[in-house]
Amino acid sequence: MSIQILGMVSTTYGSESAGWRGPVVDPGYLADFARAHEEAGFDRALVAHSASSPEGFAAAAHVLYNTERLGVLIAQRPGFIQPTLTARKLATLDNLTGAGRVAIHHITGGSDTDQRRDGDFAGKQARYRRTAEFIEVLRRTLTSGEPFDHEGEFYRYEGAFSSVKPQGEVPIYFGGQSDDAIRVGGRWADVYALWGEPLAQTRERVDLIRAEAARHGREIGFSLSVRPIVAETEDAAWEKAARIRRAFEDELARDGGGTWRIGRGENTAVGAQRLKDEADEKLVHDERLWFGVTRLTDGGGNSTALVGTPQQVADALLKYYDLGIRNFLIRGFDPLRDVRDWGEELVPLLRAGAAAREEALIAAGQGG
Q: Which residues touch 186 (CB under 8 Å, ≥6 apart)?
């Protein structure tokens, strides 16, 4: 398929507007959430990471064992697990659960506070250099048919080797918007993850990162993360967005702003600052890209929303497809219900629109 649709699972029910309830790790909820993604036609589900959240590989294994086809995208921060061990963990999961179901997302870290919770006191520039070296060693461990030595700035190995190799590819996702991030991602990533920015800014990012990848003789894919807010009519969708914002404001007032920010600290990421600037410029970009929640999150995380009917939101996402983006990570403010609803209309519409564009490109190529 020319398009990959990703969701995001969590070990407990909650969102910015709904609050969080239940145990921190609810195995039944996570299994239901994973199966809902599979039934709705998603390809993968992100397992997110912070220095205070449940461990991602264990959660990902639970997702894989409770589904038949759904893949996982495991977020992790280089610097806490050796890349050689990470490679063996990924390859083992791949062999146990089926080829191609495991992917990894490298997060260098936008909050010094959260990094230090896990004992990492390196500065951001050093963290990006470490990420580059981590991915280099990870790739080599996943593919090398014989032991190898490595001596770099952060890692040193003698005779490194993994007897277990993945049955298929393990895609490497990467995120970050600073100059350092673009240099690392352009050189090493398979898929570069972007926040839901306006089309003009996204086009600029795509061109910039493609150019960096081309410097290394590489092609690179892209992912876009956004929060659909869908209803039967456009007016109803905007009313729903307003309710979500009011509910989030109520949650912040109730707990002093602490719940959703646990583990994050001050977000110094360039990507977060870009979202903050765009939110300050105006509340709605490109007709339906809404920054109402972004204004309340200080630019943190996946917070921009596309608001409208299923067809309107699918059409808006397909404009990003036209920029070359083939991976779409969508998650809701009522997470489980939204996934089930999107499986009825939004996901099929998005796939149909992508397929039509692919057929048109093929026809145009044949015609030429």
A: 192, 209, 211, 212, 213, 215, 216, 218, 220
Would 160 be classed as within a structural domain?
yes
24 within some domain: yes
H helical segments located in the chain: 27-39, 56-65, 83-97, 112-117, 124-143, 179-188, 199-215, 234-255, 270-281, 294-297, 310-321, 335-344, 346-367
How far is the first Cα of the chain from the last one, in angstroms, to the nearest whole number?
Answer: 23
* Separation between Cα atoms, residue 179 and residue 176, nearest integer Å: 9
Q: Distance between CA atoms of 205 and 211, rounded to whole angstroms? A: 10
Q: How confident is the model at residue 265 (pLDDT cuts 50, 70, 90)?
A: low
User: Which residues span the domain enclosing 328?
Assistant: 4-227+309-367
Per-residue pLDDT, 127: 94
- The rounded distance, in Å, linking the Cα atoms of 269 and 297 is 13
User: Under 8 Å CB-to-CB from 144, ≥6 apart: which residues?
Assistant: 160, 161, 162
Model pLDDT for residues 116-139, shown as the tens digit of each residue:
877 777 788 999 999 999 999 999
Q: For the domain that residue 175 is a member of, what is the CATH number?
A: 3.20.20.30
267 assigned to some structural domain: no
The reported pTM is: 0.93
